[in-house]
Amino acid sequence: DIQLTQSPSSLSASVGDRVTITCRASQTISTYLNWFHQKPGKAPKLLIYFAYNLQSGVPSRFSGGPSGTDLTLTISSLQPEDSGTYYCQQSYKTPWTFGQGTMVEIK
Amino acid sequence: QVTLKESGPALVEPAQTLTLTCSFSGFSLTTTGVRVSWIRQPPGKALEWIARIDWDDDKFYATSLKTRLTLSRDTSRNQVALTVSNVDPTDTATYFCARTPPGPSVDPHGHFDYWGQGTLVTVSS
User: Fold this and answer.
1) Which of A32, A95, A99 sits opposite B109 (nearest CB)?
2) B7 near B20, Cβ under 8 Å?
3) Contact A1 B47 (CB under 8 A)
């Protein structure tokens, strides 16, 4: 199975900061990586699919890149509503797998 | 409008079989490229993909759980059922179902664009 390791596990940043979360795969997954945001008690919400593609309705401050084994999610200007946990998920090979999550706190 | 909703027992005793149902609307599981997955999340822990059924009735399971999971579908009722046999307290989790939309080509990759609200299942005597 493909293992996904996210870093950092948690971070605390201020409104307006640029934040980057990395997802490292145990083997190449090309661009078949998706990013989700989850608030407590809620279902995850799709942000980015296939590494770069912004899901409809998601603010443009979210972006993804590049490809291979280390992929990133960047929030260009952190907003209060961006707090929560972020997960990466690969669909390069079944079984599909998730990373362990990155908890984002707003200072 | 695409919606999914999970249903099932809130409490199950150890060693029993758990059956969950995902009822959906706004799409058909017979449309080429459409898939429905089950994802679970133990309290305070990460998401775990556990199973998927595809438009052509292909089924896929998480490696660690495949001996205990069974998927089925009822396309006329727009439902997918997941059974988990021989449950134990480590199966306590919120169980979500989620849709993978069809892509421009039929390939094994995908993402989850719509999710159900999730249903919490506790395994305890």
Assistant:
1) A32
2) yes
3) no
Whether the CA torsion B44, B47, B48, B52 is positive or negative: it is: positive
B109 CB neighbours in chain A (<8 A) are 32, 50, 91-92
Helix (H) or strand (E) holding A97: strand A97-98
Cβ B69 vs Cβ B82: under 8 Å: yes
In terms of Cα–Cα distance, which of A36, A51, A16 is closest to A84?
A36
Strand partners, B82: B20, B71
CB atoms closer than 10 angstroms to residue B1 = 6
- Interchain proximity A50–B109, CB inside 8 Å: yes
Over residues B80-117, the pLDDT tens digits come to 999 999 999 999 999 999 999 988 777 778 999 999 99
- Cα separation, B100 vs B62, in Å, equals 17
Which residue type is seen at A14? S
At A16-66, the pLDDT tens digits run 999 999 999 999 999 999 999 999 999 999 999 999 999 999 999 999 988
Q: How much is the pLDDT for B56?
A: 94
